[in-house]
Amino acid sequence: MHKIWLNSYPAGVPADIDPRAYASLCEMFERSCERFRARTAFTNMGVALSFGELERLSRDFGAYLQTVAGLRPGERVAIMLPNLLQYPVAMFGALRAGLVVVNVNPLYTAPELEQQLADSGATAIVVLENFAHTLERALAGTRVRRVITTQPGDLFPPVKRWLVNFAVKHVKRLVPRWRINGAVGLRAALARGARHELDRSKLVPDDIALLQYTGGTTGTPRGVILSHANMVANVEQTLAWSRTTLREGEETVVTALPLYHVFALTANLLLFIRLGGNNLLITNPRDLPAMIAELRRNRFTAMTGVNTLYRALLDADGFAQVCAANRGALKLAVAGGMAVQRSVSERWQQATGVPLVEGYGLTEASPNVCANPFDAKAFSGKLGVPLPSTEVVILDEHGDEVPPGETGEIGVRGPQVTRGYWNRPEDSAQAFAPGGWLRSGDIGRFDERGYLEFVDRKKDVIVVSGFKAYPTEIEDLVMRHPGVGDAAAIGVPDARSGEAVALFVVKKDPALTAEALREHCANSLAGYKRPVRIEFRDALPKNPLGKILRRRLRDEVVGADG
Amino acid sequence: MAEYPAHLAHEHRLFDGRTVTIRPIRPQDDLLERDFIDSGLSGENRYLRFQKWVAAPSDKLIHFLTDVDYERHMAFVCTVRHGEGEEIVGEARYVTNPDGKSCEFGIMIADAWHKSGIAGLLMDDLIRAARARGLESVEGIVLRNNATMLKFVRALGFEVHHVPEDPVNARVVKKL
């Protein structure tokens, strides 16, 4: 195919990368740990973890999983952690033991967690104690037999550890009571693992590294299979793209987006490990004062975020002081996951001196597919050009390529693209168009320079701050409430999160209240899936055949808000 | 009450040897129709037909689907015999639009009966009935993701139109 976008590549960026630069993520990780041993790999709440320490801790944890926990290569280990030093220890420990990592959103409710654990067949889980009560209620329907719990300060030096763990548990009371028989603390697991050798499994590139869950139109989340080869390729692609701007051993990246999401996992954790950089972990980006304080204490050269986060920072008290303290350091701010507003981008560039560089990706592609040049001088409003060794086409509804400049579904091919969904051969087959193009479900077009522009989404999905919520999952849950006759969920524009969930309900029980529905949702849906507005109607708009007309609901809401 | 158009019922032998009956739906089909939607269709298929989550069909929906007037609203079911019993394995219907010239159609096939050929049989009868009533076009809304359905209706001579304001759905139209 003719890659028209290659002419728009910055000088020094190659058209192709070596997708097999390393046989596995473990090999890549171990190489970086050797080269950058004394450098800081992660910083969290003022505590630094060096590459050397991370290598040792992850080796101990891997040895624990293999020897004491008795897990066999290919078994799945769930990780339910926010951005803490424990995250890379658990992830690389599991990968180095030949296990498959299943990332879990720590804010999931028990039903959501149970579904994901059961579907992935995970036999072990690493969980922050704050969420152990949720796990306790989810365990019954799963195959999990090893539970490793950790407290937020577990990898901090002694005094700080006691202070942080005491404050979380007894002052802020963030740990609801829980009881799981046989659960082991992470510190005990590391100590026991240290007495054993890690048997480095011989991983081959096609071995599975991650099952990364995304929603489906029928509301059941599906595990995207990402192999070591997929992930290594995407790191190498992103690395090649970053050569204009980032230097080995010199960078500090702000990691405020959650690592359980594949964007931060690849763009922050893996890329900056590859570069010998420092990941500055923000554990709770919703706590803006704490995040601002952290940013004032640390000089940082790069950052990733979504529109919602950049906007919140710009509006936060003290951000001007952050900019002043960091003057001259920041080289790159990448935005992905959701549409970036021009106004946010302009304010960001004014405040920090660098533009927001937009990228495009999807979980099924590890996730990076397109990016704007990292040395761009201004916000482009486009998704960027395909990364090295990546092919992108625009497809019509038959799966054929459309003429240049026309609009259609974005199709992707490259070494970073998944081979399919875990245990779902039919979904996997449907995900690809003839020629092996991954169907993104997004509608776009190319401009004459090979820049991809986003037009709309094809799938019935609501994107809340970069997280995908499927209407069917919300409707299924809401309609299980005995007072509900009928329900429809749609996405409505939201200044803060881009889109938010609005719910329309036809009552069966006239006494049904919005509060009762909110409580019902809060018990089973993670925060971003919960409706921000609930409206009662006598009937839902349907066509003569009984098909729901979501478009009409959306137009009503948007029209009413002016 | 509208008279049941019994003359439109017929048996058909499928290419795999099984025999099915295609006939207009009746109000007494309510229990069979409920079984069909409840157990014959996966959640995914119910979603594709109603474009929303339908866990269990309400009485109102079943009444709407089975109590048709055979004029403005026409529906055919495809059934198989099990001894004394009968099972619905597919249905297709149209409802005439207020303009009196066009109609909207919808079709559902039980998961186990995909690729059996019954969808084509049901649509043939539905299109014939629409033509006999003097309608000028059959139209429908299909999720753009529903590649199987788009391919199926194209083979039946439908045109597929994409409305720019609606990225989720395609509009399909067949002139009669």
Task: Give a short summary of the structure.
The complex is a heterodimer of chains A (562) and B (176). Chain A is 32% helix and 23% strand.
Description:
The complex is a heterodimer of chains A (562) and B (176). Chain A is 32% helix and 23% strand. Chain A is built from 17 helices and 26 strands. In chain A, helix 6 links the parallel strand 6 (146-150) and strand 7 (184-185). The radius of gyration of chain A is 23 Å and the shape is globular. Chain B is of the alpha+beta class and 176 residues long. Chain B has a single domain (6-175), classed as Gcn5-related N-acetyltransferase (GNAT) (Aminopeptidase, 3-Layer(aba) Sandwich), CATH 3.40.630. Chain B is built from five helices and eight strands. In chain B, strands 1-2-3-4-5-6-8-7 form an eight-stranded mixed beta sheet, with helices on both faces. Chains A and B meet through strand 21, helix 15 and strand 24 of A and helix 2, helix 3, strand 5 and strand 6 of B.
